Amino acid sequence: MQGRSPQLSMELNRLFLLTSFLLHMEEGRAIPTRLVCDKRLIQKYIRDAKYMENRMGQCQALTTLSYPVVLPLVDFRLQQWKSKSNETKHREILCDLMLLVGAVAGAKDQVTQECGTQQLSQLWQHANDFFQLLQTFSWEEGPWEPGCPPHFIEETPIIDIFRTYRQLVQGKLHFFFNDLCKQGQGG
Asked: What's the rounded Cα separation, in Å, for the pair 79 and 77?
């Protein structure tokens, strides 16, 4: 990403995700095919999450928010995760992303430093892209409606927002895509 403006990188990431998604849809299926099985894509988003977290850590004098934001609790036990249906995992990740997108928006309203607003905007775009993408995965008829369990924490350190996103991508999203692929729903 060296030599590119943050805006250009963000737009290229969005275009890459959308193109990958459209190229890997099978007619008549509501889950992208090879997209979830391509480990390079999730690894790219894990690297991007780490990069954003590191960049945010470099923003001078920007450590806490004036008031807390609500973040999802994204840690999980692998054995417990594996026992859940894909529909349950899907709904849980959508709830986590919905809370995260809201937290980033709330943080953006509090941050005036350019470094912070750029990183938060990029994070918002990535999290929202995943949220939009996962809304297209469907096992049920009709649009997704939130019915999220109260698994959250209020935090003021800005870095926690980025850490939560990274943990979500490295954990639940990574394993969800992996599970879909193994079960033949991704390819």
From this structure: 6
